Amino acid sequence: MLTFAFIPFLQLNDPAPNIVRSRDRARNLVCVRVEPLQGAVEYPGRIQPPRPRGDDADRSTLVCRERLLRRGLRAPRDEAVLNTLEDRAQDVALRVSSLDPALRDRTWLVETFYDHPEVLDKISFATQNALMAQGLSVSDRHPKVAPGDVEVLTRLDPMEAYPAACARYQATGSVSGTDALLALVALDRRATELQAGLCVDGRWTWLP
Amino acid sequence: MSRALSLVMLWCWALLAPAAWAGPVQDAQQAELERVRREVADKVHLSAYDLLDELVMTWVKEPPFERPTPVVMAGVSVPVGLGTSLQALMENHLSAALTSHPESTVQLVHCPACTAVVVHSGPEGTVVKRGVDDPEVLAKLGEDTGRHALFVDIEAEGAFLVLRARITKLTPELPIVWSHTRSTSATTPSLLRQPTRLTTAAEARQDYLDALRARGPISVPLRLGIRTYATPDNAEQPGVAPPPFLWLQTGVELGTTDARAWTSSVIVGYSFIPQAYQGILAQARVNRLITGRVRSLTRPNLYGFVGAAAISVWGPATGSFSDELLTADQVLLAADEEGPRTSFGTLQFGLDLRVGNRIGMGAFLETMPAFVNSPNIGNYLFVITGFQSVGTEVTFWF
After folding, report:
1. pLDDT tens digits for B130-169?
2. Residues facing residue A124 across a β-bridge
3. Residue in chain B nearest A140 by alpha carbon
4. Which among A29, A157, A196, B367 has most CB atoms closer than 10 A?
């Protein structure tokens, strides 16, 4: 009879595929390991905080949740980019802030080249916020090029077009000597990776 | 010839068939996608509300401006793939929260020229932009420049919802004067703060915890139950079924977590009807919450349970708990005697509907393995084994 009373304490909730969870469903889970203290704050009532004198054993909890948007609701490439948007933005901002310290005094403009306008806006937004979090001055301004320049630039190979556009920004004063332009470019429509380029004083550099 | 003709017809049919079927299939897929989108939007909108509340709370704690400042709501965007109805909900919620909290210093103003797409022709060419993207155009339209524009973006990134906000000063240089990124997980219980009285996430969680822990992990149930026993279905030798038993029970119930998705209880009980019977009972149960993963503080919670009990009864009216046939005459003859004493075990399965973990009512089916073949007790239900008893109960938790 007492065995019944102990059953709830023996429950296992492994996110791996099993009899009641298919592989597809398991793949749809996003799991994050949280420490008891953090877990007690974020999931009150479901994760117990550590006891004042410490727990008997080290414990952490694997918090799993199905993706908010199921597969198929968004284009696979957009899904891949958006799912890791914050990590990508923070990574780029960190790389930018670790460049020449003199660049920290400049006003940063962000330009994104991506074929889905809605996703493009979100990439720019995330990057601008990440740059602000690094203590940089950021502007919402977008550099302009003349219609004639656009006609020429769009006919060039991307590897030539971006440096040429950077030179034109400098020549027209669209990106001035106090500005720096960070461009995020999707060079290949099949790739989910975004290349970061820098336009400073009319010179174009791809960030490593 | 006919074979060649049929091949040609098959080929034509194969070419035409997809065109004929494309419409309905695409419509069905589209309808399914819309249904899924609505479902997701329903799921995320409470979490998005929390993020917006957090945003306003941040401004209340650390105002972005020194004095109330006019700000144009330039854009609220929602996760790619979800509809504009969610966008309208978010805009309304943010407006309501800001209006209720003037101390945030963000004073929403209406500026149609700022958010509308304007076409402006000049020496540099024709420019098609929103006013907030080009303050020079705003100046030419006679609108004030130097205002501020608020942009809010909410995006689903894996299992997390991320809110980004920025305030841009509407001058030709468009400097971003304030920005903020906040992420949460949709698994975090929605804090459901009132827009008129915002609290921090930590305070809201504490309120939630206090409500959950109002009774602590251990509660004491007081239960009044009644068990009835099925009459035997043997027409040739009808035995006499035991009378209904009233039980008063109490014990302890323990939840594994404050969520109380799983609870277990150990309970003892006593039953007494003068001149008829007495009984004692010890019972253990495991309860599983069926309606959700966390017990609700506002809605009734339905639990399923499985349990085991050891029962001992004695008195003149307990002679039916036997494998030997008990007739009506024997019952009458035994009325003045002390009667037998019988002990037996039972297994039970049932449902328990609870309100606020304070009051509840339940029903269960019980099997008594010792009396499966008793001529005195029939079965209410037979699934693998017979269920000879049905019980109902009302419980109060202290």
Report:
1. 878 877 777 776 666 678 999 999 998 888 889 999 999 9
2. none
3. B174
4. B367
CATH of the domain at B365: 2.40.160.20
Q: Are residues B91 and B239 in the same domain?
A: no
Helix (H, G, I), strand (E, B), or coil: what is residue A96?
A: helix
- For residue A3, the tally of other CB atoms under 10 A from its CB is 10
Contacts of B229 (CB under 8 A, 6+ apart): B241, B242, B243, B244, B320, B377, B388, B389
> Tens digits of per-residue pLDDT, B324-381?
777 777 776 666 677 788 899 999 999 999 987 789 999 999 999 888 888 888 888 8
In the structure, what pLDDT confidence band is assigned to residue B65 with cuts at 50, 70 and 90?
very high
Ordered by where they begin, the domains of chain A are 15-66 (no CATH), 76-206 (3.40.50)
What is the rounded distance in angstroms from the CA atom of residue B48 to the CA atom of residue A116? 23
Among residues B149, B183, B209, the one where a domain terminates is B209
* pLDDT surpasses 90 at B5: no
Higher pLDDT, A42 or B54: B54
- Say what the pLDDT of residue B18 is: 43
DSSP code, position B214: G
Is B188 in the same domain as B253? no
B294/A contact by beta carbon, under 8 A: yes
Of B155, B188, B285, the CB nearest to A82: B155
* Least CB–CB distance from A43: residue in B188, B263, B306: B188
Instruction: Give the Cα separation of B365 and B390 in Å (integer).
Output: 5
Q: Which two tokens stand for residue B319?
A: 């002679």
Per-residue pLDDT band for A9 (boundaries 50, 70, 90) equals: low
Of B187, B209, B231, the residue that ends a domain is: B209
Residue B360 is predicted with a pLDDT of: 92
| C-alpha torsion angle, residues A135, A137, A141, A147 (rounded to 10) | -100
Please give the pLDDT value at position B4.
47
Q: Is the Cβ pair A45, B257 closer than 8 Å?
A: yes
CB contact under 8 A, A73 and B153: no
Give yes or no: residues B200 and B231 share one domain: no
Report the SS3 class of residue B359.
strand
Q: Is residue B20 part of a domain?
A: no
Residue at B312 is within a domain: yes
In a domain, B18, yes or no: no
Candidates A122, A132, A137; nearest CB to B155: A122
Residues B79 and B110 occupy one common structural domain? yes
Residue B369 covered by a domain: yes
> What is the number of structural domains in chain B?
2
- Per the structure, the complete domain to which residue B80 belongs is given by 34-209
Structure ipTM: 0.84
Q: Where are the alpha helices (DSSP H) in chain B?
A: 2-61, 84-100, 112-115, 135-140, 201-212, 328-333
Q: Please tell me the pTM assigned to this model.
A: 0.66
Question: What is the C-alpha separation between A89 and A124, in angstroms, rounded?
Answer: 9
Q: What are phi and psi of B337, to 5 degrees?
A: -95, 170
